[in-house]
Amino acid sequence: MWRASVLTIFPEMFPGPLGLSLAGKALAAGLWSLDPVDIRAHAADRHRTVDDTTAGGGPGMVMKADVLARAIDATAADSRPRLLMSPRGAPLTQARVQALAKGEGAVVICGRFEGIDERVIAARGLEEVSVGDYVLSGGEIAALALIDACVRLLPGVMGKEASGAEESFAGGLLEYPQYTRPAVFEGQSIPEVLTGGDHAKVAAWRREQAEKLTRERRPDLWAAYRNRPKAPKS
Ligand code: SAH
Question: Is the C-beta atom of 142 inside 6 A of ligand 1?
Answer without folding.
Answer: yes
